[in-house]
Amino acid sequence: MKNNLLSWIDRISPLVLACALTCVYLATLAPGLTWANNGADGGDLIAAAATGGVAHPTGYPVYLILARLFQRIPIGSLAYRTNLLSALAMVCASLVVYALVKRYLDSQKGLHSSMPALISGFAFGLSSLAWSQAVITEVYALNAFFVAAVIYLSVYRILNMRRGYEDAVLGLMLGLGLGVHATIIFLIPIALLVRSISLSSDVDAKKTFWKGWQLDWKSAFWTLLWIMIGLIPYLLLPVWASSHPPIDWGDPVTWGREWWLVSGQLYRGYLFSASIADVWIRLQLWAGFVTGQFGLLGLCIGLLGLTIFFLPSRLFALTIWGTLVYSLFAINYNTEDWYIYLISVFLCFAIWIGVGMHGLMNLALRSRRWPGWVVGIAVLFYLFALAAYHWPQVDASNDLRAETFGREVLTKAPENAFVFVQGDQAIFAMWYFRFALHERADLVVVAPDLLSFAWYQDVIRSTYPQLSLPKYFPWPIVLEVTNPSRPFCYVQSSGQTEISCFSQKSFAQ
Based on the domain organization, do 11 and 124 belong to the same domain? Predict the structure, then answer.
């Protein structure tokens, strides 16, 4: 009877996790284009996928392929369908966290592992930062899935698959993950290393673990080879660009332009450019972010799991590495949304929470069996209460700012006007309405911040062949002078829609 109950719990736990997170994400999912939760890039990603184009650096080819598939789902708006990709990806990432913790705990003696693993999955899936990216169009939810999958494949065998095939699957996931977000490159060295540890089991004594490192060059070779195969989607970027889509960052039809795009040269200036004072402030914020995600209780349980209950193992090494390297990158990446890159850190911390819960529940078992389950259920309800507190902060279901902005500009802009749009969120929103939804085809939407790039001038030429364009036009005024019959509007969003329109004739008078 006892074994049947535990077996039933094993089967039902991942289903409970998946269904609960799906319901929460759908309830808070943005119904259309949104600027909630730092979702400014959504308009660019949706429009690039819808038009067969190329998104901002690094191009994100794997993400765009999946986004195009989701955009074919016959429900909701185009943006809503693309938002669904993020929700599904974060549910899958949370399930992989559950599987990671459960498999690790199954190798240890003590309480049944499903409850601690379930707590770990909910701790990550309901953390405010992960949740915020699950309800908007962005690459970070899908990136979280690939990070979790790479950690799992680096640590554990896949059924009874041969080692060579496992190396291929791991390498393929790493390569495809690079087509979602380039930061997964941080996991390549540790993934190669931990799979080469000579251990008889996933968890061994400390001396055995630290003496078991021996690089398997054959395994490393096959993994690297399949990483290269996983990068094949990047070869699609010049193919997409050759059709001259209106969203065509870098116009990567040459190797030089493609390298500019995939290497993220546009953003290199942000790398390790934060001042010492900013780094110190962010270090203090880092601890606050961890507490904010899991609460003080979750923070304590995670630290207990890391320092007391976690035995040296491949999973231990990977989570330590992931926490350190992603924290270092985020803290030194000099942008306002630097903290979003901590999602992978919180994924690792959620694993520690699962290990810590297992240890605490085992301690409670020393008297009777039921106190351990009471502790687990109490922490689970604590996470749900914390989620209720976070709900208003991450809920994107009522955010209509981007939709209102776009509609207002389309309504007020005169016929055949140039629309010069300032700011990422504003220009990406206009790309969504103009190119993805094909509204107001008479308007010429231009991003003045990009006019200095030769590739963007080429995109303007191919997108608006009816314009009279000089060889070089780095400023809006050049377009105005060479096309005097067209009115022009200057647009931006600073809490409200700001649009000022003029005609050449009225300006001359």
Answer: yes
